[in-house]
Every structure is written in structure tokens, then in C-alpha cells.
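INFO  loader      accepted 1 record
INFO  loader      residues=219
INFO  predictor   begin
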Amino acid sequence: MDELMGLLDTAVTSPWFYLALFAVAALDGFFPVVPSESMVITGGVYAASGQPKLVLVVVLAALGAFIGDHVSYFIGRGSGGRVLRRLRPGTRRHTAFEWARRQMLARGGLILVVARYVPGGRTAVTLTMGAVGFRLRSFSLFTGVAAVSWGLYGGLLGYVGGVAFEDDPLKGVAVGIGLALAVTAAVEGMRFVRHRRNGRAVAAEGEEDADRVGSMSRR
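INFO  predictor   done
INFO  writer      dumping C-alpha cells
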């Protein structure tokens, strides 16, 4: 354990950590198996002891996320035309794509900011925004807000853990990641409840329409 902590201390307090953090945050924008959030939290934990600098952790994490989201967006934009040409009008996939396009154009900014806190969800949203032709200027604005808030969120979570467990950084990392998982679970819980409510509302509307059609046919 002492050797592991020594390696972790050396890695996080090295100047190369800044470059690694930026690269991982960018890569996570279009390759979501990379654990960028854990790395930001770890940087925040060690920042409580003075090295690395919290401001640089937040800035580089946000900048990497911003660039990674744009890579994902342009991948979606490049493939969106091909996908749309393959979809025949009237099919379920075409209908789903058109629904996604309308949702993104109507409230894509809010979806983008919220998705930044859902592992894997951020990539799906940025790819879809590119595919449906969401305006680049608006995308850059909202992804900038999402990236900065995410960098602050991860860095400050880690910093709180680092202050609470100054003599045991590993516990600080565990606390920071635990808090992040709790927030993610809360977001997913709210999304699940909202999805169920929307599903019930749609089902109720369908039943009302069916009753209305039935009553008209009996007349």
C-alpha cells in the first residue's frame, strides 16, 4: 500500500499530470470508457495539499472536455447525412431520428449540460447533436458551460475530500468518487421517474384517443 501511495503521489504531483488530465478529458468526450471524472477528482484531492494546482486542474479538465465534445460532434455531423439517407420515411428508425432531431433543436442546450454528468450519455448526446445538425455556435456555447461546470464539480469534490482526509489522500479520493456516484445515481433516478411519468401520460392520451374513436364509431 505504501508503494502504491508513493506511485500515486509521484504521478499526481508531477507536471506531466496536467498533460495527462487534459488528454484523458478530451479522449473521454468521444471514447467514454476513459475514467476522466475519477482523474479530475484525484487531482482535486491532491490540490488540497498544494500540488497540483486546483485552478489548473479545473481549467485543463474543462478545456479537454470542451475539445472532446467537439470531436464527438463532428463525428456525428460527418456520419449523420449517411445515416439519414439510409432511413426510409415512415419507418420506426426514421421516426425516432426525427424525434431526436426535434428534441435537440428544441432544448438541446439543457440536454447537453445534464448529459455531461451522465457517464456515456455525454457522448451519445454530442454525437446525436452533430448528426441532427444542431447549430455549431449554440453547441459550443452550451458545451462550454457544461465543460466548465463539470471541471469545477469534479475538482471541488476532490478538494473537499482532500481537505477532510489530508493525511490519507486515498480516502479523500474514495469520498470524492463516492459523492460523484451519489450525484449520478440521483440524476439517473430523476430521469427514470420522469420517463415513467411521461410514459404514463402518453399511455393515458392513447387511451383517451381510443375511447374517442370508439364513441364516434358507435354513433
